[in-house]
Structures are given as structure tokens and as C-alpha cells.
Amino acid sequence: MDIILVPGFWLDASSWEEVTPALEAAGHRPHPLTLPGMQSVDADRSGIGLRDHIDTVVAAIDALDNKVVLVGHSGGGAIIHGALDARPDRVERAVYVDSGPLGEGGVINDELPSDGDDVPLPPWEAFEDADLVDLDDGLREAFRARAIPEPKGVAYARQHLHDERRYEVPATVIACEFPSSLLQEWIQAGHPFVAELSKVRDVEYVDLPTGHWPQFTKPAELAQAILAAVESPGAGAN
Fold first, then answer.
1. Superfamily of chain region 2-230
2. pTM for this one?
3. What is the 3 state secondary structure string of 77-139?
4. Stretch 174-202: mean pLDDT, rounded?
5. Is 205 helix (H, G, I), strand (E, B) or coil?
């Protein structure tokens, strides 16, 4: 199976480096992406918006012969959902890693402080305690050293969707910061945070208790959770 891996904010393709070996060992073909403006700290991020990142994922789908599994971490969940909306017939399953689908008109996070066209990685004090579980001092130092400013246009732009066939594609939510039971409670209560997720017909939930960056704090466990999702019904072995 071709597995397209979309990183969250401040990260490039290398953020998946401790996850991809297990996927390859299981016979799959991982395709970790570096999205526009995320090539380096010095890259030009002016004019780059959410649609540009979605279009990059769509191009990756179109470059492959078979159906794919899309994996999106954090803000990457909104990006893979936009790509799924563009190519619902090409996606076997969407996997949201501590994230979820972003609905029409939503933004990923327009409250993040920006510096011109950049959204730098905030100081750790700006994050919730739940974000930082298991992210020890060494991991924090390594994360900050590799962090690349996110294009402001990706964080602030509104999502636009067009094809309701996106709701027919099975999804897996790998819940890290919050237990999946809480997400399901929010769905039952009609919470706007999970409004788009509530419309997906087939959703499975997997609990992976850790902070917001399991690819750093629990990479082996994350790889196994992705493998289980890939091999679940609705994700063919092509």
C-alpha cells in the first residue's frame, strides 16, 4: 500500500523518519512529504496558503498508480481532508494522528502568533500540558532545532470543500492528547470541534496516550497504529 504521510506544523518529511522503517518492513511504500515553504528555515513562505499544501498532497496521490492511505498529523489532518475531498475515489482510508478533518470554512489555527509570512514554533510555555506529555528536554531541544516556520497562509486560510463523497471514505483517529472516548462524547454532544468528523460514515478510534507529537515520543507505537489502520477493512493490500 502507498502511504502518504503529511507532517503537522513546523515539520518536514524527516519528522516521520522513526515511523517509516516499520511501514517499509511490513511491505508498504511510505511517502513522507515536505510541503511548500517547509524546505528550510530560509525558504520563501510568502503567498503560500492552505490550498497549496492540499494541492501538493493531491499531486502525490495523482503520481501513484494505486489507491492510497493518507496520514495527517496535527494540522496535516486538515490538509489530508482537503486532498481527500479532491480525490475521494483514490483514497482507501484517512488516518488522523492527534487530529481530525477540518470542515468547510474552518481554519487550522489563526490564533498562532505570526512574524510576517511566518508562524514560528511558539515557546513551550504557550502549549497545554497535554501537548507536551513525554516530550522530555532532549526531545524538545531536537524538535526546536529542526523546526521550520509554518506559512501563515496555511494556518490562517479557510478550508473549502466540494465533494460529499469524502464522508464515505473510512477514517481512523489516533487519539493521543485526549482519549477517544472524549472525542466520541463531543460528537454525541454536537461539539463544533468534531462537526466534520461526526459526518464521516465509518470511523475507528485508536488510543495512543502521549503528547501531541507521537512520532517523537512513541514512534514505534505510532507505526503499529498506522499499520493496523492500513490493514483494517477498507484499506486494500495493493
1. Alpha/Beta hydrolase fold, catalytic domain (3.40.50.1820)
2. 0.96
3. HHHHHHHHHHCHHHEEEEEEECCCCCCCCCECCCCCCCECCEECCCCHHHCCHHHHCCCCHHH
4. 94
5. strand
